[in-house]
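Something for you to look into today, if you have time. I want to see for myself how the chain folds. Leave the record below and I will have a look.
***
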Amino acid sequence: MSAAATTFAGPRQGSLRGRLSNPALLLLPAGLFLGFIYLLPVIDLFRLSVSGPTWSIFFERVFSVPLYWDSLVRTMQISLSVATLCLLLGYPTALLIRRTSGITQMLITAAVILPYFIAILIRTYAWMVLLGRNGPVNKFLTGLGVLSEPAQLLFNRGTVLLGMTAVLLPIMVLSIYSSVSRLDAALPRAAQASGAGPIATFWRILLPLTLPGMGAGFLLVFVAALGFFITPTLLGGPGDQMFAMHIVQQADFINSEGFLQALAVVLLVITLLFVGVAGHFLGFEFIWGGSKADGGAVRATAARASEGAPRRSLLSGIVDRIGWPILRLLSRLSPAWGRWTVFILAGAVIATLILPILVVMVISFSSASFLTFPPPGFSLRWYEKFFSDPNWMDAFWHSAVIAAVSAVISVVLGASAAMGVVRSEIRGKSIIMLLLVSPVIVPPVVLGLSLYSLFLRFDLVGSIWGLASAHAIGGIPLVVIIVSAALQSVDRRLEQAAALHGASPLNVFRTVTLPAIAPGLAAATFFAFLHSFDELVLSLFLSSAQLKTLPLMLWADINYQLNPVLAVVSSLEVLLVVIGLALAGPVLARTRAGA
């Protein structure tokens, strides 16, 4: 081995110094943190759920009492309906983004991404304003003469489906777009050059190649919907409450220990079962946006095409058997039908995502004492009320401090874990990555309940450090995903050159790696901060009367009174998200360009 190679190789792996310089050790801080504050409480949750006279007594009650069984079935039905709606509406939106370019593509993408980072509570509140008796929808319908008087558009199953679909649509669009954007543009052109029409090209080329992205998006939306309770509670009636709401309600009863944990375990096990089945077919990379599912499908299809004798899979056979009768029928239509269908559906999606937010922002300047649109006049009275109210200000600063501390914890632990995954040669990286990002698939009510017992033992309930640590459980996966992508875009030859010239691993990181990933770290910090700033569910379990956050204040007011002060809070958060995304946009673009 040459001297240069020896220098680059660094300390021998068998030596103590070599073992200590192993990047895999960087996984330890995040592993210990998540193991103590995330995995142990979940394990304890399972222990309490089987702590009755017999291990199954609480579970028998869950499945034998009609209230809980009906709620579980209803949750599955609503989640399946929402995932289906998101798929039907998200696909044309992803296609429209792919088919546009320049400023148009940027605006459409921003219209999809922006609502994704706005708190669920605020987006749900926006629909309450939009569909209220004095809201713009009722006024529009009465103005057209469709209704003689304002109708009750809220508190029904349709409104719940609408609200949840609007919240989860960005996940589906981004998931499908990740498949669409990887397609070789030459494939559709080759199909059309061979005589295939636009519809046949879509059915035989585009649809099969994007099935992995569709499947990943469907499962992500379905799993996320299983743990919903905010949107159904605010927009639905008594017959629309989902299973997670029972967990929140039972938490108020002192004598419900054991049964309460059993409710949470049932929801968690169902979620993990669906994730496990999806991971078997798609690969668990679909959880964090990995390319295994998409890349494998594209490569397999391209290989079969180059062989000239495609081997049809069972899924392709089913698609063809179902699709050919439909294809023959649709082939009689003009190709313009397809383009207009994509344009109309995608336009409806964008309007659904953006319109409620714009209405709320306008109402924040209303001079009226109640929610009405359009406002009778414009005034800053509600902004003055917000900034002069000590309760709102205390809640705002509590949220800001907690979010800042949580972002620091998330970035320090998440960035070191990302370095350990990307730069080490440790085996089982996919399993490690799955464990690091697994908090994103655990229903928040389950996580909040499991943390409550732990926090009581260590007197962390209602403390800034406690809430910040709890919020960091969800912030770490965001940081790991973003920083991992940034690290993979760094030219390893620069790091190797620095090492060959005698720089220590620490100096290589400080002078080469850190400047290269600094934009990614900045973006990760912003998203970790925003995640904590918007967190409601964990705060419901872990806050106190003396430590209220902004989402908790918003939740209390939405449940008991609706006034334009809530619109002010919503508008300020939208402004925060817009500023943050404007700053993070170039960072993310640079990361994608280098990947």
